[in-house]
Write a structure and sequence with these properties.
The chain is mainly alpha-helical and 197 residues long. The chain has a single domain, classed as RNA polymerase sigma factor, region 2, helix turn helix motif (Rna Polymerase Sigma Factor, Chain: A, Orthogonal Bundle). It is 65% helix and 8% strand. The chain contains eight helices and two strands, in the order ααααααααββ. Strand 1 and strand 2 form a beta hairpin. Helix 4 packs across helix 7.
């Protein structure tokens, strides 16, 4: 953990302003993660608030030697999974999906938006743990070690689960008409997602 964050966490244990600063650092990313997990803005807001309530209550017991971010995501993931048990997945549609700057045609925008819709639908159909693993890695950019901490599993288990979640997601995307094409380039392989006609 970086030194400044450790100092902020230590201060946040007794200073509400320091805790507010800590919340400000994580609130948007955490909300986005929970929104993608639940598919509901209201649920994401409630779960984000509940996550920080639980963080505040547990902060005095938090080990400053441990990474803070995975600990927060562990609390959020557990809350989201408990909230989602027995519920049908909800599709999360992005309001805007930016394309490359040189590709601003209406056709490109429509194609990009359709691809994003299909990807979101496939992610929403994943079981809760698989969805959490994919989102933690590919949306929140957590390292494998941090995913393992957030999900409270050994590192090897986290890697295997993420591999299986990716395979399941790939199957869903292929069934929906998306496929990954690899093209060998001088710098290595590049993957491009296209829509089958």
């Amino acid at each position: 953990m970086e030194q400044l964050e450790a100092v902020l966490i230590e201060e946040a244990r007794s200073d509400p302003d320091a805790f507010a600063t800590l919340v400000g650092r994580y609130q948007d990313r955490l909300y986005n993660y929970l929104y993608r997990m639940t598919g509901s803005r209201e649920d994401a807001q409630d779960l984000t608030q509940e996550t920080f309530v639980r963080v505040y209550r547990a902060l005095p017991r938090f080990n400053l030697e441990a990474p803070f971010r995975p600990w927060v995501y562990k609390i959020a993931t557990n809350l989201a999974i408990n909230h989602l048990k027995g519920r049908k997945p909800v599709l999360v549609l992005e309001e805007y999906v930016p394309g490359p700057l040189n590709e601003d045609s209406p056709e490109h925008f429509a194609e990009t938006r359709e691809i994003q819709r299909v990807i979101n639908a496939a992610v929403a159909e994943l079981p809760e743990h698989s969805r959490a693993e994919v989102l933690l890695r590919h949306v929140n950019d957590l390292a494998y070690e941090d995913i393992a901490r957030a999900l409270d599993v050994p590192l090897g288990t986290a890697k295997v689960r993420l591999h299986r979640a990716r395979a399941l997601l790939q199957e869903k995307l292929m069934a929906a008409g998306l496929r990954a094409q690899s093209e060998e380039t001088g710098a290595g392989a590049a993957a491009e997602t296209t829509v089958k006609p």
